[in-house]
Specification:
Number of strands: 11
Order of helices and strands: EEEEEEEEEEE
Mean pLDDT: 81
CATH class of the largest domain: Mainly Beta
CATH superfamily of the largest domain: Immunoglobulins
Helix content: under 10%
Radius of gyration: 21 Å
Largest sheet: 5 strands, mixed
């Protein structure tokens, strides 16, 4: 439902520092200056919360949102962007969620000269929703100095 060309475009949410989420989008191609967008998100359609901290463009239209204390449980998140244009509804497009991970935690290196070996240990980075360490793959770059 909604008028063609009013749906937001390039909707992306980035989670960083484990619990902060920044969502941005572009105004629909046919959206007029009176078009306004509202973002809701949560674990299901029945349990969503509206953005409390919108980012606005020069026409005072909402084009982004910043969330704090984000946790995504069960690997599921529901997003809804709705709004109106001269009293007519807009429609929704696809979305992308990206999480920028922190570095691994508690990295330790123990080397022994006798065996010419090093033991490198770490703990997985903290994330907003991934609980299994087997989900991560690591790459180690060793440089001789």
């Amino acid at each position: 439902a909604g008028m063609n060309g009013t749906a937001i475009e390039n909707f992306v949410c980035v989670i960083f520092n484990v619990s902060f989420m920044n969502c941005t989008w572009h105004v629909g191609r046919s959206a007029t200056e009176d078009t306004q967008y509202f973002l809701y998100w949560g674990p299901s359609k029945k349990d969503v919360t509206e953005c409390q901290n919108y980012v606005k463009d020069n026409s005072r239209r909402n084009t982004g949102c910043q969330f704090q204390n984000v946790t995504i449980e069960n690997k599921r998140a529901y997003f809804l962007v709705n709004g109106s244009r001269s009293g007519q509804s807009i429609h929704m497009s696809d979305y992308i969620i990206v999480e920028k991970l922190t570095p691994p935690l508690n990295v330790t290196v123990n080397c022994t000269e006798a065996s010419h070996r090093c033991n490198i240990c770490w703990q997985p980075p903290r994330t907003s929703h991934v609980k299994r360490s087997s989900c991560f793959k690591y790459e180690i770059v060793i440089e001789n100095k």
